[in-house]
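Researcher: I've been going back and forth with a colleague about how Reverse transcriptase domain-containing protein might be arranged in three dimensions. Neither of us has a model we trust, so I'd like an independent prediction. The organism is Dipteronia sinensis, in case that matters for your notes. Sequence below.
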Amino acid sequence: MHITHLQFMDDTILFMEPKLECLINLRRILWCSKIGSSLKVNFYKSCVSKVSEKETEEVNWDDALRCKKVTLPIVYLGLPLGRNPN
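Model: Here is an independent structure prediction for Reverse transcriptase domain-containing protein. You can compare it with whatever you and your colleague have in mind.
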């Protein structure tokens, strides 16, 4: 199974390739969603985190999305997320 996102009420986790093109497209989709629904993403409350240790192009996600950068493990909706959630 290929999971691309998890959503609960007004919280969403998106999984994507760490490529600048994907980041730009995400920003565009969120902008179009804001225009269509009059709802917007609060990037000051949002965060990004790297999940994979693979060597990829260096993308400055936090600057591009204007949100904070966090490292795993993190807590999402009261549940620990990370490599070893035990």
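Researcher: What would you highlight for our discussion?
Model: I'd start with this: DSSP finds two helices and six strands in the chain. After that, consider the following. The chain has one domain: 5-81.
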